[in-house]
Amino acid sequence: MFNGWLTENAARRVVGLAGLELDELMAQAESRDFRPIPLGVRTSLRLTAQIRHQETANVLGIVPGSDPELKDEFVIFTAHHDHLGLAPARDASGDNVYNGAIDNASGVALLLTMLRELVSIQPRPRRSFLIAFVGAEEQGLLGSKYLAQHSPIHPGAISAVINIDGINFLGRTHDVNLISMGKSDLDELVVQVARAQGRTVVPDLDPDRGYYYRSDQFSFAQIGVPGVYLHSGIHVVGKPEGWGKQQLDRWVQEIYHQPADEYDDSWNLDGALEDGQLLLAVALLAANQSQMAQWYAGDEFAATREKALADREKKQQSMASPSP
Ligand SMILES: [Zn+2]
Predict the structure, then answer these.
(1) Sorting pLDDT into bands at 50, 70 and 90, what band is 319?
(2) Residue 55 Cα, ligand 1 centroid: separation in angstroms?
(3) CA of 100 to the centre of ligand 1 (A)
């Protein structure tokens, strides 16, 4: 199977082949009654694929909840532990080790740090936690997809997933770039905690890049579980306006998914610490509140959630009253 992403320029050319204008179509797409238009353009594609089989594993842990009523429900933490491994070098240095220091050794390290805190928190959280260091994210979210599709916990009993994929290395920020914003009532918990930190929450700064659909929270959305996923803010404390965005754009251009994603002494991890505190506080609120997290009405994943909740209820009832 082939799938891929189209750049805007390529889309312009493809649409042009059909005698249409991308800008016009995009303007029309601003209106709610816009419907997709068949282009009538056909293409053929020839790919040479080399297949390598490798084994990997998801590494799981459980922190049991304390509430007899709620401890069968879970909040899940995910951070992928894989990166690209060995791949062709990008430059004359010949460095062919794709370390993935930020993406996502940093996320694994941050989550481990948060867990050290989580296990000693009193009073104990009401719901349980499943901690999942998942594999093969870079190969198409394979580890989290496997975990979600073969979930050891009924999908209707998973309140929320909190995913960490990369951390802020620029220092403290005034803002939180909440990729998952606008989808579920978990937003309200993030806003509440961020406000206490003196920070504002803004929706995905690059919605055209589809980040919500590109990391492990998406595997759980597909079984109906709402998630929290954030990226580094861009308004860095003590830096001139525009500096943070410039740094992050440069990182995406020069370092992301390249051998250059290596540990760097110049990182300032104060912002990552604050993000970790925020995510842990949000997780605790989600674990302790009486209701499980919910998608906002009409969200694309709300119907899947409804089904999962109904199925769980049915199973609970049949267990409570076994048939003769
Ligand atoms: Zn990643």
Answers:
(1) confident
(2) 19
(3) 8
